[in-house]
Amino acid sequence: MTEGSDKETRHFELCLKDSGMDYLPGDSLGVLPTNCPEVIAALLEAVGLTGQEQVEVGETSMSLSEALSNHFACTVLSKMQIKKFNQIAQSEKLGELLDVANKEALMEYMWGRELIDLFLEFPQSEMDAQTFISLLKPMAPRLYSIASSLSAHPDEVHLTVAVVRYDGYGRERKGVCSSYLAERVGEAIPCYLHPNKNFKLPEDDKVPIIMVGPGTGIAPFRAFIEERKIKGATGKNWLFFGDRSLNTDYLYGEELESYKKDGLLNELDLAWSRDQQEKIYVQNKMMEQKAELWSWLQEGAIFYVCGDAHRMAKDVDQALKRIVAEEGSMSEEDALAWVKGMQRERRYLKDVY
Questions:
Q1: Do 127 and 234 have their domain in common?
Q2: Are 307 and 226 contained in the same domain?
């Protein structure tokens, strides 16, 4: 995290000694978080319960506070939760939002709201603890792309995490797992390794690779570069990285610049969206380098993308197809087929979320 950034991104280093866990570049780490005590306290107050009530979770009896801390997602708000809630609340407003014809209005209502907002807007003074937890989803683990090579960092696993914090509807909100890592971890973190066989370095160290990873999408590519350095791989390496500002958001900037200087990174293209009037993204940098990028693809380079699935990955995909069409002198249809061929040959790999 760099001072002055309006985003909070943290680098975590976890010790794996005596855990028996090992991993390969491209794998992920699953983290099982606990909920923030302040979030639980506020939710209990809104529901009108103390937390001392006994509830059944599966075949186990425990206090409501323990259940909320370790077993259930307390912030997420879904259509099914609203539907279950309104079976009790019988709110005309929620009933209208749940009508199939009002799908867009429901999505707008849910945006930025959490479960607590339902209870604050539609108080339920007589809801018992067991009924309350029936509204909740089980706590799900969060997967983070590993940002280190085990060869370079024995007995360690590194993560690159964007800590989510924002204000919404008059309340401070925070991401469950990112705030857990930033604020609430103890000496050990409940976690597991999640292999990703579909996002791996080529077996042949001579094969060139092109990596597109803005923001925290840089994580697996830091691992890729470290691994290739340790192995003495001779294949060329090209990284496209981007974020908001060079001065505050250049994640692993010193490392990347060192790799570029040493020749390990043959190409390093950087896109800063807020450093000039016109926003520049990684897909724009790809288009600027379209002739060279096409040359690498013709040499058999593997093309990797990691990061935001909703916009970035789609924009990068469109840029790739456009480059193939323009530089390969193909029709749009033929370019699409060519890119699909890359995917079948496992030369176009994605780790998006």
A1: no
A2: yes
Q: For residues 15 and 156, is the Cβ–Cβ distance under 8 A? A: yes
d(CA 322, CA 223): 29
Residue pair 17/155 in contact (Cβ under 8 Å)? The answer is yes
Same domain, 328 and 230: yes
Strands (DSSP E) contained in the chain are: 8-15, 28-31, 54-57, 60-63, 72-73, 137-138, 142-145, 156-163, 165-168, 171-174, 191-194, 209-212, 237-243, 267-272, 302-307, 348-352
Supply angle C-alpha 274, 349, 194, rounded to 5: 95
Q: What is the pTM of this model?
A: 0.92
- Which amino acid belongs to residue 323? I
Same domain? For 215 and 125 the reply is no
Which ranges in 136-218 belong to alpha helices (H)? 176-179
Q: Among positive and negative, which fits the CA dihedral 10, 16, 19, 24?
A: positive
Could you list the residue range(s) of the whole structural domain that residue 337 is in? 209-352
Q: In what order do the strands lie in the sheet containing 302-307?
A: 267-272, 237-243, 209-212, 302-307, 348-352
* Rg for the chain, CA atoms, rounded: 24
pLDDT of res. 166:
87
Write down the residue that tokens 């339902």 correspond to. Answer: 118
Rounded to whole angstroms, the Cα distance separating 90 from 101 reads 19
Map residue 60 onto helix, strand or coil: strand
Residue 4 pLDDT? 64
Q: Among candidates 193, 164, 197, which has minimal Cα distance to 76?
A: 164
Instruction: Using 50 as the pLDDT threshold, list the residues of the chain that sit under it.
Output: 1
Give the C-alpha distances (Å, rounded to integers) separating 97 from 91, 104, 130, 245: 10, 9, 26, 40
